[in-house]
Amino acid sequence: MRTTIAFTFLAFIFNFVVFGQNCNYFIQPRKVKLTKDLLCPEIMIKDLQELKEKLNEIHPDLYVYTSKSNLDSAYRASIIKVSNELTLFDFAKVISEYLGTIKDSHTGLNPRELLFYGDQKRGTFPFYLRNLNEKFYMDQIWTDDALIGKEILQINSFNLKDLYNLSYLMTSSEADASSAKKEITTRSMSLIFNIVSDLKVKDSVLIKFISDRDTLFKKTPCSNVGHFLKLKELFEENPVNYFFDSLNRGVLTVSSFEPKSIKYFKKEIDDFFREVNLRSCNDVVVDLRDNHGGYVRAQEYLLSYLNYKKLNHEIEYVYKRSDYDRFSLLPFYQKWQFRQRAKKVYPNGVLSKEFDFFKSKNGSVKKIIYDYLPKNDLNKTYNGKCTLLMNGFSMSASVLFAGWFKSSERGEIIGSPCLGTMSGTFGNSAQIRLSETGLPIIIATLKFNPQHTKNIQFQAIEPNKNIFYSVEDIKLRRDPVFHYLNLGTKSQIN
Question: What count of Cα atoms within 13 Å lies in the side-chain half-sphere of residue 68?
Fold first, then answer.
C-alpha cells in the first residue's frame, strides 16, 4: 500500500515537471516562436555564463570604453533578468543590453539574424523610416509609394516611439557615437517590427499617418521574408563608382571596403585618379556614406592617393591570442607560409613581432605598431581640394579613414557623425553561437588604435558641416548632401 502511494506521488511529480512546465530547455530554430515560446531560466543562465567566458577569452580590450565594474554590474543584472521564463526575443534583448555596455560596434547580437528563426514562410512588411525632429517619416516601403514622405504614427498596434525605443535597445554603438546610433536605430525599426509581429504573407498592416494635418489610416499588404532581406541600403555590385560633373568635380563613391576582388577594387580606384589627373581636376568628393567598412588595406589604398604630404600611416594593433584570432583561423598552408617567412627575418621587423604573438599562449595580449607609407600602383597622389562625405552608417574601416582625413586636415567633412571616434575602432569579429539557444554573437578580436591621437576619445568624429534630411528631400527622393554641394541626386547619377 505504502509502495503504491509513493509510486503515485512520484508519478504526479514527474508529470508536473515534464508535462506541466511552460518553458523550453531546447529550441528548434525553424519552429520557435520568437515572442511566444518561453525559455527556461537554466538554459539562459548557461548561455550568459558562456558569453561572459567567451568575452574574456576573445575580446582584446573590454574596458576601453567602459569599466570592469560597469560590465560586471551589467552581467549581474542580466542574470537577475533571466531568473524567470523569457521568450527568445526577450532573452536577445537582455544579451543586447549586456553587450551594449562594452560600447563596441563589432561585439554584439545582430537582430537581423533573428529573421532566420521561426517560420521562413511567414509574412513581413518591408519599410524604412527617417527620424526628423523626433517624428518618423516613410522613406521606403514595399508596395505603396503614396506613403513616401508621410508622417507615420502607428503600424498595427505599435506606436512608433515605442518601436524606436525597442530598436534602440537592440542597436550597438561605438563609444559615445550617439548620433550614428540614432540613425541606425531608426533604420532598424522595420527589422524589429517584423521580428515581433506574427504576420502571414496574405496579411495587411494598418498604418496610421498624417496627411495635410488629417490623421488617416491605410491598409498595406505584406510580403515574404525574402523581399524584406532585399530591402536595404542602396547596394552596388561594384563598390566603387564615380562620375565628373559639369564643373569638372570628381565624385568617388566607395560603398564598401570589402570588395569581392581587391585587385579589381584597386583598378577602379586607379582609374578614377587617372582620370582626375587627365582632366586636371582640382576638386574631388569622396563619398563613404553607408560604407560599413571592410579591409584596412582597401581603405589605405584610397588614402594613399590623398596623402600628398607622404606621411607615414601609424596604427597600433591590439591582439589577443585565442582560437578565434586571425592567426588561428589561417588555413594550414598559410600558417606554414607565415612561419617560414617569419623565421627568415627573425628577430627583426613587424613580422617577427607577429610571430612572437603567434607562438604565445591563449590569453596573451600584444600591441604591435604598424608604421609605413601606404602606396598605390600608379605611385601618384592628388593634392587638390577634397571633401569627405559620411553618415551614421560609415563604420569600421570607414572610421579609420575619417579619423586620418580629419587629423591630417585633408579637407572638409560633410554629412553626419560616423559610428566611431578618432581613437579608431575594433575589427575582425569572430562569430560564436551560444550552446543552449544557438543565438549568434559576434566578438571583436582586434583593436585599431591610430597614433594620431594618444588619448582615448569617446565622442564621434564630427563633420565640419552637418546636413540632415528634410521632408521635402524624402518626397523628392533627393540626396540632401549632393543637393547642398549642387551635385544632383543619386537617382540622376545611376
Answer: 2
